[in-house]
Amino acid sequence: MQVRRGRTFAALISLATAATITLTNAPGAQADVQAPTHGKLIGSFTPQDLASHPVPHLTSLMKASAERCAPLPAGSTARNAGATTACIQVSGSSGSSPAQSSRLGTAQEAAATCSVTSPGSYYYHRHDYCLNSLKVTYTEFNEQNPAEILGTGVLTVSSSAALSASSGQWQESQTVTLAEATGLVKELSVGLTASCNGSCTATVPTAWAGSRLLTLGQSASGSVTYLATPGAGLQSNITTSYDLNVTQPGAVPIVKDVTWSNPRQVRCDTTFANNTSTGCIIPSIRAQLILPLSTYGAAAATYAWAENNLIDHWGADDSPLQRLANENTQTANRTNTCGTGASRSFTPLPATVPDDSCDEYPFAGSYQGGSNGALCADIIPLLQNGVWNFYQDPNAPAVTFNEPCVRGHVPSTQNSAAGGKLGSNNQTERVLDLEKFDVVVTA
Hints:
Residues 1-31 form the signal peptide. By secondary structure, this protein is mostly beta strands. The chain has helices spanning 77-80, 107-111, 293-309, 327-338, 412-428; strands spanning 41-45, 58-61, 68-71, 85-90, 121-125, 128-142, 145-162, 169-183, 187-196, 200-204, 212-215, 219-228, 235-238, 240-247, 257-261, 266-272, 277-281, 287-292, 321-322, 356-361, 377-384, 387-392, 406-411, 436-442. The protein folds into two domains: 41-54 and 286-442, no CATH class; 58-281, no CATH class. It is built from five helices and 24 strands. Strands 2, 3, 4, 5, 6, 7, 8, 10 and 12 form a nine-stranded antiparallel sheet that branches. It has a five-stranded mixed sheet with strand order 1-22-21-23-20. A four-stranded antiparallel sheet has the order 11-9-14-15, with no helix packed on it.
């Protein structure tokens, strides 16, 4: 989570007003309150100050493959017309590199479909991917005069797939179009077969039965299906691969296939729900834990304050957290920060925050959590006239902003709701032990 640079996160707010505090018990429903004259004001922001966070995505551009060539059979129509050889290759994208990528783009880019990405490129979110108009070129020529192209056919291949966070099975739609045809090439027959490795099997490997004959502008469409079955407690990194069979009726070369693979892997695991739940994602895209202030109230506000003010900026894009899966270690971390393991105890302030509880950040369920609570900044987040104000806990040392953690005075319902969201998000985003994730606080 980030606040717009150029705004001062800690605004100067008058502390002259003192009044009673009213809170509801519903998660995220902390009402506007007036602050008593307790600790020093150490920061403020409004929900509108929160920077937008486009959906993370990546783009991988395909390079041209080597040409695969073979002689045309004697007596074929093309051979009789002077062509001796046919070649086929993935043409790729001009000036592209398979490593070229962008992790975060504009909101427009993040919402875009493959149709607006570079032709010949794969486009990824954590839960889906697609291929835009990969170009495959079929060429016929005479070996005695290779510069003279006697016929060409340009095919484009597009595909898309949505992965499931609760299943190891997914479908991938495929469309092949004859976009250009010149000279001796009037029509082409195409067939597409998919495969996958690791624990994966293509249960429906062909997008359509046999081959389909295409004339200029015509398309063949269908779907392939994959099924990943990693063992209980295991994960599997999977590459999907493709074989496009291309022939010209009456001019069938000996070598007539072109192949390619998805540049990025799909990861499927069976590590949640006591190792009984399988799900798949694109691991190249980092997971986000999204916590709206409107739902998680003071809990989300505490994390936003820490992410933007403390020295380590834990949870930000340049300083992600890492999931800690071991529940015993999580409990120990929570004890060290908010419980009896802290050498300076957390003192609830029920007169200021009804149903007050200690909410630690970084989370106990992260490898960055578990600091001795005595080292943390203790803060009181209060929503006042639409502004989140953060006050120094009068029972704690002055905040230096160099602390490795924060302990927020947060209503217990909001604390529990945020903790529940962390746990459910790990499963829906398939965040594995040690895997990095960002924390994004929104309005």
